[in-house]
Amino acid sequence: MSAAGVVRAAAVQIAPDIERPEGTLERVCNAIAEAGDRGAQIVVFPETFVPYYPYFSFVQPPVLAGPDHLRLYEHAVAVPGPVIQAVARAAAARRIVVVLGVNERDHGSLYNAQLIFDADGSLVLKRRKITPTYHERMIWGQGDGAGLRVVETAAGRVGALACWEHYNPLARYSLMAQHEEIHASQFPGSLVGPVFADQMEVTIRHHALESGCFVVNATGWLTDEQVNAISGDPKLQKGLRGGCFTAIVSPEGRHVVPPLTAGEGILVADLDLGLITKRKRMMDSVGHYARPELLSLHLDNRPAQALRAAAEFPPLPVANPVARSASDEADAATGPDHRIAVLRGSAG
Fold it and tell me: Domain CN hydrolase spans what residues (predicted)?
């Protein structure tokens, strides 16, 4: 979809169901239906919302976090799997693009994953946060450059980053250079305190200006009961409040609708994609305002793999023929170690 026309976007700020993680999926599907009923063509959910963000890891030392970490493993999302199927059906039923944050389980590791479903329910992008932040490094593995990709959807060209990935200017630039029109940003919310929300606003408004795109930002929410359940220490509970700033920002860096900083709700706004060209006419960071002969980005977009089969590598060069002794000929008949054979020939 080109930068023309109007797209209605929704940003969701709701609480997960920490006690009954399957209830979080129900909340997601209900929010998709509500956003669709309100005419939204794209809806963005908070960071790792399914089954829930690991808030425990921010206030618990690692030595005490084992049971909660294992419980997150138990309820994490397999891709593909039942959660993917349920969200795909919900997206297709409302003909809406869905950007969902999940804890993805891949065998023995968890990852902070962002999923983009197109309006027909197809999963068009699964990416993993490239560097978990601070306490998160005890919970998730690292992603790779394969996920730094903008995808074409029914709502336009959509890119996504999670939380402090927005503090990595090269990660942001990789999406800018792919001409994203709508940037989906996801933060956990209910974390760190009000300063987190203040910093978030600066970050997403700056990216909208620099990229010349719309930013749809979603943060999570924790109820008082959930905060008390995560930690009974009043001092630590301060770190589980504030930090909510669900917002929709234009390419001019302006809020399209007032942001949501407390409580649950869904922001809905119309995005005039024509504003993208108006912004880039003045300043296109990856076009007429770029100097690629001076400054450019190299992106390694190959998937990181722990194992590669030999068939994936080019064949090894064949050594030059060497004189073979009678013993070498005998070895050949019984399956010799070719490395030894080459050494023998070299020594002779």
Answer: 7-273
